[in-house]
Amino acid sequence: MTTAVDDALWSAIGDPTRRSMIDLLLAGGPGTATSLSERLPVTRQAVSKHLAVLDRVGLIHSAAAGRERHYRVDEAQLARAVAQLTAVGDAWDARLRRIKRIAETIERHRTDDQGE
Amino acid sequence: MTTAVDDALWSAIGDPTRRSMIDLLLAGGPGTATSLSERLPVTRQAVSKHLAVLDRVGLIHSAAAGRERHYRVDEAQLARAVAQLTAVGDAWDARLRRIKRIAETIERHRTDDQGE
DNA sequence: CCCTTTCGCAACCTTTGGTTGCGTAAGGCT
DNA sequence: AGCCTTACGCAACCAAAGGTTGCGAAAGGG
To answer: Which CATH architecture has domain A7-115?
Structure first.
C-alpha cells in the first residue's frame, strides 16, 4: 500500500529537467553537459548540477575524455527507477479500481431500491 | 519519445510528502489537514500547503464542513497522473530494452570473431 | 603559440518545503 | 449564555533546491 520507494531515486526523476536529460541520454547516447544544455531550456551550469544529482543516486556515470566529460545512463539503475514508478502507479491504480467497484456496488443497490 | 507529460501533475506527485498524502486519502477516505498531519512527519501547516498544491492541479477537492475542511481525491485526475507515470516508465523501458538488445547483438558478433 | 572550447567553482537570486506564532471561527460542556 | 477546546488560515521566517551570471583554468586546434 504505502509506496515505500527509494525517495532518492524518486526525487531524482521527479524533476522535469532531469527527466528530459535522461530522455536525451537514452536517445542520443552519452553526452556532455554542454551538448545536453544545447537541447534544453537551461544553462550548462544548471545541467551540470542536475548531472551531479543524477550521478549521486547512480542513475548516470561519467568519464573524463580530454577536456570533455561524458555522461551515460546506468541502465540497471534506471530500470530500478522505472520499477518504482510502475509500483506507485500500480498501487494507485489498484486503489482506484477498488473505489470504483465499491461505488458501482452502491449505485446498483440504490437502483434496486428505487426499482422496488 | 520525449515524455511530453503535464509537468504540473508530475511535480505535484513528485513530492514524497504529497505522494504519502494521496496514499492516506486513498486508504482512509476523505480527511482534513489535521488528520493527515497526525500520520505524517510534518506539521499541519506544511500539509495544508501541500493540499493547496494538490488542489490547484485538481488532484483533490475540498469541502467545508463546520470548522473542518474535508479533502478527497479526484479519481479521474489521479488516473490521468497514473497514466503519465506509466507512459514515462514504458518509454524508458522500451529504450532500455532496445539498448540491451543492441548490446547483446554486438556481444554475439564479438564472440563470433573470437571463435574464428 | 595563441585562440577557442569546455569545464568547474563561487556568488547570487527565487521558489519551495518546512517551521513557529497568532488570530479567529465553530463546537462541546456546564 | 459563557467558557474552553479544536481546527483552521494567515504571516513571518528559515533552509534547501533550481537557476543564473561571472570568473579562472586546462585541453585542443589553427
So the answer is: Orthogonal Bundle (1.10)
